[in-house]
Amino acid sequence: MGYRDEMETLRARVSQLETELSEANDTIERLTGAAPTGPVTVGTDDVIPSRVLDGPGKITLSRELDLEVDDEGLEAIAAHLTMRYGVQVRQIGRSLQAPGFSVTQRDGKTRITTTNDYGALSAASITLSGLLGGFLTLMTFAVGHDLFARGLAEWHIAWLAPLVMALVFVVARRLTSRVARNEATKRRATFEALVEIAKRHGHAATPKARVEVEAEAEGDEVEVEPPPEAAKRAR
Fold it and tell me: Pick from 86, 57, 83, 98: which is nearest to 180 by CA?
């Protein structure tokens, strides 16, 4: 057996011992409870409150699972989104895209994300307060002037309009805040359901074999004696 064959044998033995040691450590961690038995989950919950709504202004939920979802799982996720929100789900490769939702698979991991911005509800609350408040102000001024106070001057609108708009804003804020909270609760429930579907239809990714290409070992130098005739001429 040559030098190179001996080195390859030693490397193979070291690799085998490292694999056995890793498996033994995993077994010890599972038995002692030091390691999770299911897929590793990494997630973030980012909820930005809105002072206008007195509720969620923007919500972002994200989970990264240490697994890959099979085709049946992707179909189940798409069906659940369609049932809950009536949206069209597009599949791009091994990933899903829907308004406000995304399921991305890469490098043996699956990331599920949902994002929703409630800024439109804030704008609707303010717009409703301005338009409806202004309309009610004019109606109140007209009714008061015709039925109760003929001498009511138009400058009273300057203080009446802000008061009515503030009252309308209080009511509109409660309504839009309730809508935002209910939608956020529904979105979180849908998101957690997608995570559970992914776990049920997920499997650990097949580890990619690492192939290391090593340079050819240099051959040993061997001294070659010159032939007898060459040695006589050299003398």
Answer: 57
Is 20 a residue whose pLDDT tops 70?
no
Of 170, 182, 183, the closest CA to residue 126 belongs to: 170
The pTM of the full predicted model, rounded to 2 decimals, is 0.61
In whole angstroms, give the CA distance from residue 110 to residue 103.
7
Helix (H), strand (E), coil (C) string for the chain: CCHHHHHHHHHHHHHHHHHHHHHHHHHHHHHHCCCCCCCCEEEEEEEEEECCCCEEEEEEEEEEECCEECHHHHHHHHHHHHHHHCCCCEEECCEEEECCEEEEEECCEEEEEEEEECHHHHHHHHHHHHHHHHHHHHHHHHHHHHHCCCCCCHHHHHHHHHHHHHHHHHHHHHHHHHHHHHHHHHHHHHHHHHHHHHHHCEECCCCCCCCCCCCCCCCCCCCCCCCHHHHHHHC
- Has residue 5 got a pLDDT over 60? no
Which whole number is the average pLDDT over 25-49?
57
pLDDT of residue 46: 84
Looking at the DSSP bridge assignments, the partners of residue 27 are none
Cα-based torsion angle of the residue sequence 141, 145, 149, 152 in order, rounded to the nearest 10 degrees: 70
CA distance 201 to 42: 18
Rg for the chain, CA atoms, rounded: 36
Least confident residue range of 23-27, 141-145, 199-203: 23-27
AA letter at 16: Q
